[in-house]
Amino acid sequence: MEYTLILTILVVIFALGFDFINGFHDTANAIATSVSTRALKPRVAILMAACMNFVGALTFTGVAKTITKDIVDPFALQNGSLVILAALLSAIIWNLVTWYFGIPSSSSHALIGSIAGAAISAAGLTILNYAGFIKILEALLISPFLALAVGFLMMSLFKVLFKNTSLYGTNKGFRIFQIGTAALQSFTHGTNDAQKAMGIITMALISAELQTSDDIQMWVRIAAATAMGIGTSIGGYKIIKTVGGKIMKIRPINGAAADLSSALIIFGATTIHLPVSTTHVISSAIMGVGSAQRVKSVHWGVAKKIVITWIITLPISALLAAVIYRMLSLFF
């Protein structure tokens, strides 16, 4: 019992660490467009995002419940705390590597791939809840394409609505409007991304027989929301630079269209209790907006590198988690 309790405490610590890293890794995406268009100063944008992420994280729990039970059954997982600890270490390592190089990779892919990899390493392929796992993968796969399409349509609509407005007037109005869209984007980010750490902690509590249902306890919600809020307050300037400027040159009208499009997709996923990659959604929305503006305005070379990172994240994190589990099992 003492051994299980120690592992559970470690899981809680590393889960909050993952949420903290997620805060400065992924939230950079949520405010990148508003910073790049100078709608908000970086420090103001980061503080606003931290507050909105905290509020969003406390508002919903559906995604957390999906993470808790739809990848593997926590009630059937033997040595579950060690499996979850290995998954967290793998996801944290991948997040830090991609953050260091300024690559907007997906924390969601990293975490979900890591859980699957560690669980398979511990109990074989039969441990996965394939119906739930495939549903999650479908959401992760479809959401970027939806964001691309919605971004294209949103920008096309804006072009029609404001075709007779002067460029100066349009930029000035949308720069103010972007303050609201950045806040909305940060809120929706909190409603989806912060839920993942909550789900992980709940998995560990169930595995350690400290909880008998998949309900998310209030202390878990507050702790995860706080960790993400603090992480957000530190900021991720390298990723802001990539998302906010290297995909395309963003004007205020482009930024507002991208923010609204991605917020719509992320919040839609939250309402049906599905985790999506906020990184994928936001980057895809920017590509869609850029394509509607002018296809050649998108820096497709940078976009290609981002897409390649998306593709390799899940298998690499799964393999890394499997190796880490085997190493940890030698000591525990």
Poorly predicted ranges: none
Q: State the separation between the terminal residues, measured CA to CA.
A: 13 Å
Q: What's the main sheet like?
A: none
Gyration radius (Cα, Å) is 19 Å
Q: Can you tell me the overall shape?
A: elongated
Helix content: over 70%
Number of beta-strand segments = 0
Count the DSSP helices: 12
Q: In total, how many domains does the architecture comprise?
A: 1
Question: In words, what does this structure look like?
Answer:
By secondary structure, this protein is mainly α. It has one domain (2-331). It is 81% helix and 0% strand. The model has no long low-confidence stretch (mean pLDDT 85). This is Anion permease. It comes from Psychrobacillus glaciei. Pfam families: PHO4. It is found in: Membrane.
SSE map:
Elements: H1 2-36, H2 42-59, H3 62-70, H4 80-100, H5 107-123, H6 130-161, H7 167-207, H8 218-234, H9 237-246, H10 252-271, H11 278-293, H12 300-331
Helix pairs in contact: 1-2, 1-4, 1-7, 1-8, 1-9, 2-7, 2-8, 3-7, 4-5, 4-12, 5-12, 6-10, 6-11, 7-8, 7-10, 10-11
InterPro entries: Phos_transporter (IPR001204)
GO molecular function: phosphate transmembrane transporter activity
Keywords: Membrane, Transmembrane, Transmembrane helix, Transport
